[in-house]
TrEMBL record:
Keyword Electron transport: no
Keyword set, alphabetical order: Exocytosis, Protein transport, Transport
Bias (Basic and acidic residues) ranges: 8-18
Exocyst component Exo84 C-terminal domain boundaries: 77-312
Homology family: Belongs to the EXO84 family.
Superkingdom of origin organism: Eukaryota
Protein name as catalogued: Exocyst complex component
Gene source species: Clavispora lusitaniae (Candida lusitaniae)
UniProt GO cellular component terms: exocyst
Region spans: Disordered: 1-40
InterPro entries: Cullin_repeat-like_dom_sf, Exo84, Exo84_C, Exo84_C_1, Exo84_C_2
PANTHER family named in the record: EXOCYST COMPLEX COMPONENT 8 (PTHR21426:SF12)
Example GO BP: Golgi to plasma membrane transport
Length: 326
């Protein structure tokens, strides 16, 4: 037999609205929810909360387990969420993340106090509904924090210190989204590398063999310096977190490094083909031994730097670093 709470049309409507608020829309290309949906969901949750509180006004907060006391505690918990927005507005991520976790702990305490209550008690049903609302509000703040961190990585990765990046990784882990955080970090480094290479291409002039060798040498230096930076970030910012028992492994990091260095090899082949190198039947040969030797002389020390950092990608370059004369 349906409970009294389930028979109440208004509460059924609230439950239906809550399910609608919890439903995730199709994500945008960057993985975030559309801004219009987020805003409408926030308004809906605010309205749901106000309606529940308006029906359960009471000043009887003398005992910890009274419904009125728990409603008051939930309202205080909700009010704290506005402080998260203030911290984010001032880029105070440590405070924002810490406050979200504090709010989650407070909510968990209220949930424990609700648990022994009768399921047929209308006030208990309202409390559980309000808990769901607060949980969704917390999820919304978590998403805002993650979006702010993602923006920080994508737009400031070149200027962020290792300690700052380590803190950002820790923030993602605190929300149980370490995979997303590390993936965002590598994406930001890829964008930084692409922008740096783009500036190098824009400043390149001339098409003589000397120009080509200098350009390819500088390109290699740029790639290696940024990949070495990623190796440093992985060792100092990501690896310590993984060592604490994360199910995540190093495969994403290795894949990123190999992928970027493979792209460098492809670029070297493209620009050296026809002037320094020629390809016949899948085998590369030196067309101009003098300038080819100069290119090898500049690239090999860069690969040695990567090896010194524990990343050996020499095999990617083998077919163009050991060419016989054409």
């Amino acid at each position: 037999m349906p409970s009294a709470a389930e028979d109440n049309p208004d509460k059924r409507q609230l439950r239906d609205s809550l399910r609608s608020a919890a439903a995730s829309p199709v994500p945008e290309e960057n993985g975030s929810r559309p801004a219009s949906h987020r805003q409408s969901q926030e308004l809906l949750l605010k309205d749901l909360s106000a309606r529940v509180h308006s029906r359960n006004r009471s000043h009887d907060v003398r005992t910890e387990h009274s419904a009125a006391r728990m409603f008051a505690d939930l309202r205080a918990t909700e009010d704290k969420l506005d402080e998260v927005d203030v911290h984010l507005a001032h880029n105070e991520y440590v405070s924002a993340v810490g406050l979200v976790r504090h709010i989650e702990a407070k909510l968990a305490g209220v949930v424990e106090r609700i648990a022994p209550s009768s399921t047929d008690d209308p006030a208990t049903d309202e409390l559980r509904l309000l808990v769901d609302v607060v949980r969704l509000k917390i999820d919304g703040r978590k998403m805002k924090v993650q979006q702010a961190l993602s923006f920080q990585l994508h737009h400031g990765i070149a200027a962020l210190s290792t300690d700052e990046i380590a803190s950002i990784v820790e923030f993602y882990e605190a929300f149980g989204r370490l995979d997303d955080g590390v993936s965002t970090l590598w994406d930001a480094m890829s964008a930084h590398l692409a922008n740096t290479v783009g500036r190098l291409i824009g400043s390149a002039h001339g098409s003589t063999r000397v120009d080509i060798v200098n350009y390819l040498a500088n390109l290699t230096i740029v790639y290696v310096s940024i990949v070495r930076r990623v190796v440093e970030i992985y060792k100092k910012c990501v690896e310590p977190v993984l060592a604490r028992g994360s199910t995540m492994d190093s495969s994403g990091f290795v894949t990123w490094c190999v992928g970027e260095m493979s792209q460098l090899v492809d670029t070297l082949k493209t620009h050296a083909s026809g002037t320094l190198l020629v390809e016949t039947g899948g085998i590369w040969r030196a067309k101009d031994s003098k300038y080819y030797t100069e290119l090898v002389r500049m690239v090999q020390p860069q690969l040695a730097l990567l090896r010194s950092d524990g990343l050996n990608v020499d095999y990617l370059f083998s077919d163009i670093m050991e060419c016989q004369p054409a």
